Amino acid sequence: xxxxxxxxxxxxxxxxxxxxxxxxxxxxxxxxxxxxxxxxxxxxxxxxxxxxxxxxxxxxxxxxxxxxxxxxxxxxxxxxxxxxxxxxxxxxxxxxxxxxxxxxxxxxxxxxxxxxxxxxxxxxxxxxxxxxxxxxxxxxxxxxxxxxxxxxxxxxxxxxxxxxxxxxxxxxxxxxxxxxxxxxx
Length: 185
Prior knowledge:
Blueprint: H1 2-21, E1 31-38, H2 40-47, E2 69-80, E3 84-95, E4 100-105, H3 107-115, H4 122-132, E5 138-141, E6 144-155, E7 162-170, E8 176-182
Antiparallel strand pairs: 1-2, 2-6, 3-4, 3-5, 3-7, 4-6, 7-8
């Protein structure tokens, strides 16, 4: 009798844990996605602002040190109540005349870019990229809450105004479009 109660208790706990671990989502696809463009300050705070912090989402010395590139850092939050296929249909940044002002770097390209900074923290920064960056144009969303980053690299300063745009879809459904208008300085 005691064994049966113990087994029932364990099974009940497993079932309840399964229900609790599935996040609530509002999208009918079973996957909520949000994309935000991080300001320079937000990018600093995400992985550390001190020069000794391995933050690959800021340029060495910041914008004021005359570094030749400016970064557009995007943070993707994926909350999945079920396993799904995520497709990145496009990540662009265009000026008011329609010209490209920054280029999206895929994970390996951005890892190589970060390691080219020649600093003591280059290897640690590259590891942070490998651990946090969008894994590719098509990837599996697993159950739960996941955060990814993506970067567009442009000439410093990127000409203003510009618009960053992300098109992303779940299970080949209707694309979700996120746009970020950045005004002139």
